Amino acid sequence: MSDGYLPYAADAEQSLSADELLVLQRQYERELPQARIQTKFNYAWGLIKSPNKREQRLGVSLMHDIYNEKAERKRECLYYLAIGYYKMGEYSNARVHIEQLLALEPNNAQARSLRELIDEKVARDGMIGLAVSGGAVALLGIVAAAIFKKRSN
What we know:
Elements: H1 18-31, H2 37-48, H3 53-69, H4 74-88, H5 91-104, H6 109-152
Helix pairs in contact: 1-2, 2-3, 3-4, 4-5, 5-6
């Protein structure tokens, strides 16, 4: 799999229209119980691109199915799984999948770019978490001081 076959992570932010997603869903459902892998893949990718978390989860689930069913699609699925988990805010899962891909393809530009996005998001969220917890500790200190002052009066 070369870099040219993978979209950059930013492409995942461009959702399909409801009508486009419905076309993919209907094609997938028409082919059940044995949907073709490409049909399943297209539907999974459309779901992952959705802004709806429930649809993203279904897309990730379908992508996992493909990953487990077709050895020749494993590396491709790792990338799309990483994007799906990234979009859902599950950065540790996203990181696991992108690292597995980079172990196979260390020079994959799209995978490296996605790893940077994941790392930036984790760092930014970590800083926000520290600020929030620091604020909570400060607030508790103020409340405790007020209670102590009130009791000592």
